[in-house]
Amino acid sequence: MLPIFLTNHKHRLYLGIAVMAFLIRMLVHAFIAVPEFSDAADYLKAGKVFWERGYIHNYKVMPLYPAWRYVSELLFGGPILDMVADALTCYVLAIFTEKHFTSRWAWISGLCWAFYPFAVFYANTGMSESLFVLLMVSAVYFLYEEKIFNGLALLVLAVLTRPVFDLLNPILVFVFSFWVWKKSLKISLLHVGKYFLVYVLFMTPWWMHNVQRYGTFVRTGLGDGQVLMEGSHPGNIDGGPIAMELYVKDYEDISDPILLNEAKKDDAIKYISQDPVRFGILGVKKFFRFWNLVPNSREFTAPIYRILAILSFGPVFLLSIMFVISNKITLRKTLPILLMVFYLTGIHMVTVASIRYRFPMEPFLLVLAVAFLGQLLDKPANKLTYRKMDCTF
Questions:
Q1: Extents of the domains making up the chain
Q2: CA 392 to CA 147: how far, in whole Å?
Q3: pLDDT tens across 144-165, in order?
Q4: pTM metric for this prediction
């Protein structure tokens, strides 16, 4: 039996778009210099230490992306696997859009992502965005399809890449089961239990690593204290990351990573309790920084960056909002996506905000934007016609 992308003309088109996306990223890699980021160097070094010594030395990072990045460096001398992951995201987005939002215009999702400036950029930086986005988009797609084990496994792999959705995932699984699949409360709680079983199975090697490394149980990483402290530090005036010199002296006497992380958490709570009004004002600033249409960093204030950002994310942002407003009847289908958007926004209103941290939501907003565009092109009577989902499990 031939794979579906060889027998279905639409899927052959989606695959062609993915190949084109990979070639675009390769051309950028060959001819355009992408800035070097300290996070990228940290990932590569962590991967090198992991493959050579068997442990992750950087207590702030999760293990999957450093290993992925170092394999890419060994095989290809650069972040080629990130480009592959981002190209595959085009394919998954197109299938996702076709099956659950607009069949006729689904190719637009894949094509837009192929040329999407932020996607092309992050695929060339050597940071975790491309792999994380592929895992999350694929996980959500499989959950919409009610292929539960695939979805749960990918959610946990995403946690092993970046743990930002670690707390949301069980709630997300419940929402899919209870609202999207229309299962009973009992079955929905059973699905949440299945998530925890998969979670324990996949996370146990990492927990064993952490016990051996730190002498105690660490569920994910030890970077949450850092972002909490930075986000509430008196030296933070705009809601973004702050310079190391503002805080490094406060912690130079603490060498134990566990104690260091706890000290930063304690300081964050102290800063918030001392001036809750300032914390609220800073949270509002973080909200607008998170949803800014243009880059916040001074390195990317040139007109070309601002124009590219506005012309790419601007329409996606506007059309996705219009889809939600004009399709209130479809809230059951879009609730998981909206839940992720609100959750991620809230997390970064408390910690630090950047359009980089918003990026994992942009492919989902793109799907909603294309769904609204499909409405306009097809001119249906006020709402999309959705494929009836098979809820057999």
A1: 4-220+275-378
A2: 10
A3: 999 999 999 999 999 999 999 9
A4: 0.93
